[in-house]
Design goal:
The chain has two domains: 3-117, Enolase-like, N-terminal domain (Enolase-like, domain 1), CATH 3.30.390.10; 121-355, Enolase-like C-terminal domain (TIM Barrel, Alpha-Beta Barrel), CATH 3.20.20. It is built from 13 helices and 15 strands. The chain has helices at 54-69, 78-86, 95-116, 120-124, 150-157, 171-185, 201-211, 228-237, 250-258, 275-288, 301-313, 337-340, 368-373; strands at 3-14, 21-23, 26-28, 30-40, 45-50, 131-138, 141-142, 162-166, 190-194, 216-220, 242-244, 265-266, 292-293, 328-332, 353-355. Helix 1 packs across helix 3 (95-116), helix 2 packs antiparallel against helix 3 and helix 9 (250-258) packs parallel to helix 10 (275-288). The chain is globular. GO terms for molecular function: hydro-lyase activity; magnesium ion binding.
Length: 378
């Protein structure tokens, strides 16, 4: 088997005017990402996702990857991440190179799984899992005036026993949002909060201390991703576990997060971190320092499938069955047809669990007609 072609497919969906949603940094109306399709001489097709604009990913693929990937054996997939740091030298760690690499890498792993008849999580090794705990990513800041309790009620009705909510608009607002979520979820549910890097260290510390009583599983991106000294300052000042990773790229950036326990949870996004090859290395780095791994997901169905396969492979170390700390995957509860419509059988988080596909590769079947409906370059 060898690769015969790579196709870059930008897809997007726009929310209606007045229905924008987002985080403490602002509202957005567009859901957009880029699918990567890799064809082979055997007729097998691999799918991946580069979580970045297609208008940028297309020239990056042409400039840095196409000549090396066309003609390669998909079983050589791991060398692609290695090569991205040395050729192109000085460019390998950039977000767009890593995003393009991610999409191609995942597509190649999809092909390897199809060639061997095994799902990707079995190829990566680790702890076999058939289901994963899904947490509702919800309570976004919204352009429309909405009751902040409504999305949490919806998550509870759907059976979620874990949720992550947006905060970062001032300590008083943070406390109100967290208190509301905790009251509706109940005392036993896991509750995470996400600041999206909107605070300076002292602001983050103030909020962390104010919401500590609500038993927070982790505080995500308390300061901007590039502010590593800020992370260390927050870490010294609070007892709430810290998480980060959605805006970090490649194993070397994650190593900086892991070193000296800057965070308690790393969150590689499979459409940005370098793909499954780099994510597996990141997981090894994290587990070596006893840091938890929980993938970040705000992608299309392809990125979600990659994250589920990755999460199913991550070791439980150092836990045993006597320590209930389930592997969790993020499940965004906002409107997203790029997740819900481009698979023949969409993921279903009802009941607070997601099945790990056991079919070969990513274990999902792409609805190419739906992909064409949301294609952004036609």
């Amino acid at each position: 088997m060898h690769v015969t072609d790579i196709e870059v497919i930008p897809i997007s969906h726009r929310l209606p005017e007045g229905e924008g949603l987002g985080d403490a940094r602002g509202f957005g109306h567009d859901r957009a990402t880029t699918l990567i399709r890799v064809d082979t001489d055997t007729g097998d097709v691999g799918w991946g996702e580069a979580f970045a604009p297609g208008s940028v990913i297309a020239p990056v693929v042409d400039e840095f990857f196409r000549d090396d990937v066309v003609g390669m054996d998909p079983f050589d997939v791991r060398r692609l991440a290695e090569a991205s740091y040395t050729d192109p030298y000085h460019f390998g760690g950039s977000v767009f190179v890593q995003s393009a690499l991610s999409g191609i890498d995942v597509a190649l792993w999809d092909l390897v799984g199809k060639a061997t008849g095994k799902p990707v999580h079995r190829l990566l090794g680790g702890t076999p899992r058939e289901t994963l705990t899904a947490y509702a990513s919800t309570m976004y800041f919204t352009e429309a005036d909405r009751d902040i309790a409504e999305p949490i009620r919806d998550a509870v009705d759907e059976g979620f026993s874990a949720a992550k909510i947006k905060i970062g608009n001032g300590t008083d607002s943070d406390v109100e949002r967290v208190r509301t979520a905790r009251q509706l979820l109940g005392d036993d549910a896991r509750l995470m909060v996400d600041i999206n890097g909107n605070y300076r260290p002292r602001q983050a510390i103030r909020t962390a201390k104010a919401i500590e009583e609500f038993d927070i599983t982790w505080m995500e991106e308390p300061v901007p991703p590039e502010n590593l000294s800020g992370y260390r300052e927050v870490k010294r000042g609070v007892d709430v576990p810290l998480a980060a990773g959605e805006a970090h790229y490649g194993r070397f950036e994650f190593k900086r997060l892991v070193d000296d326990r800057t965070v308690d949870v790393v969150q590689p996004n499979l459409g940005r971190c370098g793909g499954l090859s780099e994510a597996s290395r990141i997981a090894d780095l994290a587990s070596t320092e006893n840091v938890a791994v929980r993938p970040h997901i705000w992608n299309s169905a392809v990125g979600l499938a990659a994250a589920v396969q990755f999460a199913a492979s991550v070791s439980d170390y150092p836990h045993t069955r006597h320590v209930p700390d389930p592997m969790m995957v993020e499940f965004d509860r906002s409107e997203n047809p790029l997740r819900d419509e481009i698979l023949r059988t969409p993921f279903d988080p009802t009941g607070g669990e997601v099945d790990v596909p056991q079919a070969p590769g990513l274990g999902v079947e792409i609805d190419e007609d739906a992909v064409e409906r949301y294609r952004a370059d036609r």
